[in-house]
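F.,

This is the one I mentioned.
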């Protein structure tokens, strides 16, 4: 088994190599790896670039939304192993009544280290998966897969996820509709 640091270093080197090859157009040549033990893309994530991200995974399909300040977006993607490829659509309204809509593609690779699960990825405009910048996130709350999809009827192999006990068991908080993450 590879160490988390070694996995992160390998991923960073791959991303730098892809960027050096002109990573601004089309799909990046990424090979899916094994999903980290207990991992899945569904959950509540915090991205320094794009704020709170709520992702729901049903089998290999992922849908979600992200919100940060005036930015509101939607993600739709497909997972294969530790790799998720997605399209994004974002609406920003910097001037009231004058929305601006942008679209593009991107990818996330899920990794697990001593601090928990992280998404490491990039985004691009239109049909490009790269060229726009990094898109990273850390899981703040865990949400089980929908029943009957990939992991069995009891929430999948994540039922023992250490993130779930640390983030959902205290204080009677619910992961649905909670605004406690908006300030991060």
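My design for it:
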């Amino acid at each position: 088994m590879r160490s988390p640091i070694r996995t992160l270093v390998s991923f960073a080197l791959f991303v730098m190599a892809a960027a050096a090859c002109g990573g601004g157009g089309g799909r990046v040549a990424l090979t899916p790896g094994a999903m980290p033990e207990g991992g899945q893309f569904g959950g509540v994530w915090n991205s320094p670039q794009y704020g709170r991200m709520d992702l729901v995974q049903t089998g290999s399909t992922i849908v979600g939304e992200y919100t940060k300040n005036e930015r509101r977006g939607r993600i739709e993607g497909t997972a294969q192993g530790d790799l998720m490829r997605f399209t994004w659509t974002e609406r920003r309204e910097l001037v009231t009544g004058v929305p601006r809509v942008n679209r593009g593609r991107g990818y996330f690779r899920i990794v697990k280290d001593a601090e928990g699960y992280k998404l490491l990825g990039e985004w691009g405009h239109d049909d490009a998966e790269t060229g726009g910048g990094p898109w990273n996130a850390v899981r703040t709350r865990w949400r089980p897969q929908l029943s009957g999809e990939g992991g069995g009827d009891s929430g999948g192999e994540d039922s023992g996820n250490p993130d779930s006990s640390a983030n959902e068991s205290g204080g009677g908080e619910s992961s649905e509709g909670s605004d406690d993450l908006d300030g991060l």
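The CA atoms of residues 93 and 117 lie 32 Å apart.

Talk soon.
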